Design the sequence.
């Protein structure tokens, strides 16, 4: 019986090649979109799950917040991890710290081959690194690889980069021109699905040497990412309940009441963590939800296509049903027959979708910045998902047409007078399809506009043509002033300053007690050198900026922003001269700067203290970059000039740079990815919906061909006939637009509330989405309508 069902199903497909092709192509596109989204989500959910103890590994985060801001830090002071392990041995199995000198780059050099590079992915870790993480060590001993001072592990890629085909074990790499590190092992390249990528792991003993034989003991400075492994049976809540007493016992008095420690599961970091000082930008859980919804909606659109076409052409199969019933076929057998046809169509669509998936995957990887292989489809959960898709579409989309067809009357079927299913269902499905498509188009348009707003709206400071040069722990310590003087002689260079970080992207925190405050509080702080305000075009609205000829500015002056004035309930003019205390020093406010976005626009502008660090020795630690403001049409030439001068003043040190505008754009990487992927799938949703509409219009024209012929004989023109056939579909799309607009507004407005700085939704976006959708649909319909309207009436009516 199954063989007979299959033969009938295949014959049915071959008999209606056009409609079968539309069904298969529509389903294939829908399944391809869902597959791409499925593997994207699967990859996002796989982060950090390769470790055997992943379910017991937690990162400790430190929060110091009040109503006006503060710090939400992913890193901790040096002593926290080891002290927790010592204090609570029944709960904490082990701990590991990662440290990168808070430097954007660290120089590594092979003196023998004269290969020197600034490396961005270099960390120093405790010897317990492999007790926590299961990263693969290809050569070397995990038990001893990080035990001694100056021990170093490098990845395979770095081994080839610095040593070529030589065996690097036991060889020397020079670190920051300060000391030699010995290669003790080779690591496999870091998997892409981990929340921190590394090329080098040095021993914490090397750091200890750099700090005079012991690690920093301060409980205030928080430069270490700290991970704990909890013992079997221990819970995060058990340990977190002990944190308040731990803070009281070990943290300094001035931090009591402000600092809060929280555990974050390792496997949650990639999708849920958006703290300050993250090792690298994380993704967003919201994106996973949005992409999941998009995938399901596109599948629904493809299913609706199938249901629409199957029920629309049901009358054509009425005689087949009548004959089968006459010969004794029962309803359940007919239902099985038509469901099998649906599953066969879905199976063929899956095969086509796998080919499309294979063709599209490289572009999709480039689009989403992933490195997903085709082999990922062979994972059990993906295969089960694919099987689920086949069954869901095959049965879910086929069940209604199967029951419609199997319920036909025998006599009406044999006479050929059996009508198809009600057109009301088909109209409802068309409305739902295009409502979904319009919502996706509106959502994509708003996401793109919001991204443009985040990138292009005024930040309150100059960000264009500002060159950042990595300078921490370089010869700039001794030669900054001479370097600055030399490059500012170039006519296309306006200003030069030193800064702690990328303005608008990152900053630091420090405790201040301003006049009128009972105790010190952690505030955001930015440390620049002279000419900072001029370089970035910041507007001082009261008082003045720092001056070179006023020596007290270097140690006893701060500039605050307008948000700080609001926080302290000061008028801007009365803020000038207010005293403040920090690091056991006394200072005063000498200026108020206009508010600017010193952090991402996801956050409101919080109180900020700008504190000078003019001594070039600060390049050893606090000042990380030389910022160069250029004003030129020939960036390459000016950049080459700066590089030449760098090589002159810092010989042997790589010239490592970026432009501030590019760095700020990376803050909105999630929104960029969301808008790109949403744009792609919104376009595909319209294509799938229009495929169904094209086939439905074709079927409608076929059904009404005699009516059209009679109308033409009676004098109707081709445009009139096209309008007649298009009118009903236009009504449906108009209804879809009316339904989509409020749904789109509510969902998108909720998404925009995640941003402190957001666009207001322009009604024009909704109108354009509706007009575009209607225009595309009308073009699709008109192609078939014109063909039907242009047919010769005599050909259609010759047998009447």
Sequence:
């Amino acid at each position: 019986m199954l063989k007979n069902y299959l033969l009938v199903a295949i014959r049915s497909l071959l008999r209606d090649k056009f409609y079968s092709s539309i069904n298969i192509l529509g389903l294939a596109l829908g399944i391809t979109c869902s597959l791409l989204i499925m593997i994207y989500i699967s990859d996002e959910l796989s982060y950090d799950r390769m470790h055997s103890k992943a379910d017991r590994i937690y990162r400790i985060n430190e929060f110091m917040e009040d109503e006006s801001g503060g710090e939400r830090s992913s890193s901790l002071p040096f002593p926290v991890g080891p002290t927790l392990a010592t204090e609570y041995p029944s709960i904490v199995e082990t701990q590991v710290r990662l440290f990168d000198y808070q430097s954007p780059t660290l120089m590594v050099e092979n003196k023998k081959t004269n290969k020197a590079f600034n490396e961005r992915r270099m960390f120093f870790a405790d010897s317990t690194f492999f007790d926590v993480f299961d990263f693969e060590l290809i050569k070397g001993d995990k038990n001893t690889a990080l035990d001694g001072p100056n021990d170093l592990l490098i990845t395979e890629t770095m081994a080839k980069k610095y040593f070529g085909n030589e065996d690097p074990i036991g060889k020397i790499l020079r670190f920051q021109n300060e000391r030699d590190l010995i290669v003790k092992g080779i690591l496999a390249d870091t998997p892409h699905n981990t929340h921190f990528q590394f090329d080098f792991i040095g021993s914490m003993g090397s750091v200890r040497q750099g700090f005079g034989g012991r690690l920093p003991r301060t409980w205030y400075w928080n430069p270490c990412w700290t991970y704990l492994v909890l013992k079997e049976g221990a819970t995060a809540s058990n340990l977190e309940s002990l944190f308040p007493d731990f803070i009281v016992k070990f943290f300094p008095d001035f931090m009591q009441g402000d600092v809060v420690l929280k555990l974050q599961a390792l496997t949650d970091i990639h999708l849920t963590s958006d703290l300050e000082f993250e090792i690298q930008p994380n993704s967003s859980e919201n994106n996973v939800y949005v992409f999941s919804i998009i995938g399901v909606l596109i599948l629904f659109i493809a299913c609706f296509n199938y249901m629409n076409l199957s029920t629309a052409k049901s009358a054509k199969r009425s005689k087949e049903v009548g004959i089968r019933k006459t010969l004794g076929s029962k309803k359940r057998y007919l239902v099985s027959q038509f469901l099998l046809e649906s599953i066969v169509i879905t199976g063929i669509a899956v095969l086509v979708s796998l080919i499309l998936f294979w063709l599209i995957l490289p572009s999709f990887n480039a689009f989403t910045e992933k490195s997903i292989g085709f082999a990922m489809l062979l994972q059990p959960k993906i295969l089960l998902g694919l099987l689920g898709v086949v069954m869901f579409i095959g049965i879910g989309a086929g069940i209604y047409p199967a029951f419609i067809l199997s319920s036909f009357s025998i006599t009406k079927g044999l006479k050929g007078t059996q009508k198809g299913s009600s057109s009301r269902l088909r109209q409802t499905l068309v409305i739902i399809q295009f409502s979904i498509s319009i919502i996706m188009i509106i959502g994509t348009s708003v996401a793109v506009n919001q991204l443009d707003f985040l990138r292009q709206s005024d930040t309150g400071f100059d960000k264009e043509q500002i060159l950042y040069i990595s300078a921490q722990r370089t010869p700039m310590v001794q030669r900054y002033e001479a370097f600055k003087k030399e490059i500012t002689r170039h006519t296309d260079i306006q200003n030069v300053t030193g800064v702690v970080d990328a303005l608008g992207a990152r900053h630091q925190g420090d405790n201040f007690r301003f006049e009128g405050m009972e105790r010190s509080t952690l505030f955001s702080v930015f440390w620049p050198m002279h000419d900072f305000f001029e370089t970035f075009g910041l507007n001082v609205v009261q008082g003045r900026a720092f001056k070179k000829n006023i020596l007290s500015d270097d140690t006893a002056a701060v500039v605050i922003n307008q948000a700080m004035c609001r926080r302290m309930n000061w008028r801007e003019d009365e803020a000038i001269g207010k005293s403040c205390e920090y690091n056991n020093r006394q200072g005063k406010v000498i200026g108020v700067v206009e508010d600017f976005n010193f952090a991402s626009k996801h956050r409101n502008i919080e109180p900020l203290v700008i504190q000078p660090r003019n001594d070039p020795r600060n390049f050893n630690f606090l000042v990380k970059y030389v910022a160069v403001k250029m004003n030129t049409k020939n960036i390459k030439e000016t950049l080459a000039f700066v590089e030449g001068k760098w090589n002159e003043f810092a010989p042997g040190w790589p010239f490592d740079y970026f432009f501030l505008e590019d760095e700020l754009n990376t803050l909105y990487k999630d929104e960029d990815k969301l808008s790109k992927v949403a744009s792609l799938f919104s376009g595909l949703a319209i294509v799938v919906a229009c495929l169904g509409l094209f086939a439905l219009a074709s079927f409608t024209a076929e059904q009404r061909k005699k009516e059209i012929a009679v109308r033409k004989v009676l004098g109707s023109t081709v445009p009139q006939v096209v309008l007649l056939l298009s009118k009903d579909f236009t009504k449906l799309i108009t209804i879809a637009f009316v339904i989509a607009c409020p749904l789109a507004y509510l969902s998108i407005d909720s998404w925009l509330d995640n941003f402190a700085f957001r666009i207001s939704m322009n009604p024009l976006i909704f109108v354009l989405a509706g007009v575009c959708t209607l225009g595309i649909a009308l073009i699709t319909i008109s192609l078939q309508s014109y063909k039907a309207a242009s047919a010769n009436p005599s050909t259609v009516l010759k047998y009447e």
